[in-house]
Amino acid sequence: MQWLEDHWQGVAALVLMGAGVWWMMPRRTEWPKAIGMILALVGAFLLASRIRAAEGPVGETILFSVFATSAITCAILMITNRNPVYSALWFALVTLSVCGLFWLQFAHFLAAATVIVYAGAIVVTFVFVIMLAQQSGATIYDQRSRQPFLATVTAFLLLGALLATLRSSTSDDFHVAAQQTPAAATNLLSRPTENTPIDADTMKGLGRSLFGDYLFAVELAGMVLLIATIGAIAIAPRRSRGTL
Amino acid sequence: MNDWLPSLIPTLITIAVVLGAILTGCMYLVLAERKVSAWMQDRIGPNRVGPMGLFQPVADGIKILLKEGVIPSHVDKWLFLIAPAISMFTTMLAFAVVPFGPVDQAPSWLRFIIAPNIDIGLVFIFAVGSLAVYGVILGGWASNNKYSALGSLRASAQVVSYEIPLGMSVLGVVLMSHTLNLEKILSLQAEGGIAHWNIWYQPLAALIFYVSSLAESNRLPFDLSECEQELVGGYHTEYGGLRMVLFFVGEYTHLVTISFLTSILFFGGWNFPWIATPESNYFGAWLVKILVLLAKVLFSIFLIMMIRWTIPRFRFDQLMELTWKVFLPLSLANVVAVMFVLQFAWPPIVLLPFSILLFALFGFFTVTAKRMELSRRRRASLVMQ
Q: In this complex, which of A59, A119, A203 lies closest to B120 when CB atoms are compared?
């Protein structure tokens, strides 16, 4: 209870935001969207005021705010939109905004790879499938969300748990996590070499780290992906009709 | 805050110069396309406006600007309006990391690359290029027209497939130069001179890259997404006036970008024996280097325009077979060969005969297999009769 008394503002902000999102979910009958929007905005504003902004150059702070705001806004628009094609496009914008955040953290390769894989391939496949499936307009079950209340509660519980974890761990923990820990030293799959800080903002450093320190993990992941690809090729053809 | 202000002005000037050059270039590329087409078909081509028809783009531009912007009543308005913009924006953005001159010799007020020192240069281009398909997909879907939808479906399948050999083919160059940064790839070749251009080590990769990028930009003979006989106009059937032109500016910008990339990755960029080497420091050397690079780019564009009237359009299954059954294994074999050369420190020139051998063997086997299949089919049909 002491914890709740200390953090009631954050919890209230999360509840407000969740209620707003839940209100805006697509339903059989349209509810006035303005109320949900106001609730979500108030909640988001309260939450943002409680999170201390990192100190940095003005340009970076502005860019961070732009990317973060657009990521959250597009995410809410994605789940509250009736039209599946628009939802997929908002998802692409969420991905792009998050990639902007990656770029600000000097994770250039991660940003570009995420754009290629998510925005360039996966969402294109989504749009492709939706376009093929919806030849005669969207049906009623396409236009409303199935479990709006449970989905919202679950998502915001998860968000609350994440925020609580981030708050309770100080910034020192993150520095320790990036370096050598006893658990990492004995782990066969991830063996960061001692005392060499990972030079992750250049391609060379990233490649050395992936194919040096984490070689086994990378190879294992590649193997799993290869098996999955072969499995997909084995499942997909309709042999009764003579393909493959 | 203060550390990025001094670099802001050259950046803005560079962006303005590049934007102006590309837009004017696109106007004149349309004229060049018409002139080259006319030349290939033994016609005269546009010659009414100005000397030799040189002011034709101006007349076209005025005509397009004055056209009525029609939005059909059955379209999805937002996506219909935004699709041409995406198409142009993504291709323009890719140009940000392409160096168009000797970067270290640039005057202080201008830079020969919009965003210098991007460590992941090539990956950035592929990332932005993979977004270009949205313009086509959205244009086709928003038009609410069966022909448009079919065209955009074809385009998305094609672009997503050809991205793979495109990325694979430059992997060899990246492995050999140990970097993804386009400036460094260029300067490595320039330091070695003409004998160290990547074309001598990676001729097969250059071919795969060039053809795949033609397919990426929906140029003939790969323009199945807009082929007139089957799909009216494809994804831009419902578009007219300025919005249609935005799609075309996107396509021509893509053309310019791939020509720049081919010149920089495989043909040494601004490097040319005697007149444009890293040592040449005479007055106006940077201008000569830009002109050398532009000459290579223009030659590549000219080649693309000639290909347009030389090779007929593919069928869709042939298009897919070309990427999955030919380009993908060939580029994989090429990457493996580069890995062998680097691992065992063989002289890299070994890759030249290897590439030719690989190409010849692959061609021999596929042609033989096709011949056998055809003769089997003929025999089967004879038995049927």
A: A203
